[in-house]
Amino acid sequence: MGKDLTEVRSPQRKLMPDIAGLDYRESTSLRGIATRARACRHHRFRNLYREINADLLRQCFRELNPKAAKGVGDVTYQDYAHDLEVRLTDLVARLKHKRYRARLVRRVMIPKGNGKERPLGIPALEDKLVQRAAAKLLGAIYEQDFIQSSYGYRPQRSAKAAIEDLTFNLQYGSYGYLVEADIQGFFDHLDHDWLIDMLKQRVDDKAFLGLIRKWLKAGILDIDGQIIHPEMGSPQGGIISPVLANIYLHYALDLWFEKVVKRRCRGRAFICRYADDFVCAFQYRADATAFYRVLPSRLAKFNLAIARTKRGSAASAFSSPATRKPPGSPSSASNFGGAGTGGASPKSSAARRRRNSRPPSSAYGTGSSKAVIYRVTSS
User: What integer is the mean pLDDT of 327-348?
Assistant: First the structure.
């Protein structure tokens, strides 16, 4: 009945499928993994490594971009396709006998919207192929675990869908304050040990986790020809990196917000995350302030930090009822399971603009901003 009511009240919002991240083209084994993951939230999967077979690799090869940039070794999609079955047989044999080795990742610099450049890591084609297979297996599991308001690098979870979700909640929910934040250099600061520990919550397969470690530790061939051996991070451009990033933030941020922050708020609270950008909405200022103060220490636990702001960051305003303070004393930062962090105090002045249907302008853009509190006001 609940879903029927949702469809009637908000027909523009699409309901998510029962098994997320899969379509009719996926293999029976992937569907079985997804079904098991959804049915048993604490099940740890074994033998994932053995699922990377010729059939799955063949399917993954068809899904690669034939025009993608070449990695180390200069093997193109067309080169690999020429003797595909022979190459797949050899690759499967090397995987089976633990002779597969990750190659260097070629680093290139691409322009950003602000005139600067950012590094992009391009794996060798064969590494892309195996990474794609591993990403499919992880996706089948974790698409059943990720929270509904997590977007980015996920099937049917576009930036447009994130904006629609955030807009709907701000317009029709009882939220008075927003905390907007962006994580600084997120892909460069993923802690490898933390990530493996997170994966172990759902994966009980040493060989499969060993594959992940190979890719995380793979040397980077820099633009000047030097080889860098990373101690942290996961290259942007690697096919496995997006799902690993979502898993990392699922445990570091999303679950903490859902299971700790929400329960200790006096009013309603909501998070909407797109990749490493996120907006949190609160009914009361005290809850927003407490969250704002403890957020840096929570992220620091996982080797992450809030990005520094550009001056003149703006916010759009939404109409919302019930923005008054709750009865009793205000919440403290310790309520959210962390100590206060000192640093700059949250902005107290309200950002007042006309009512519209857009989220804060930098929430899903390319610019980075320090965490900041906005007042949700009516026109």
Answer: 42
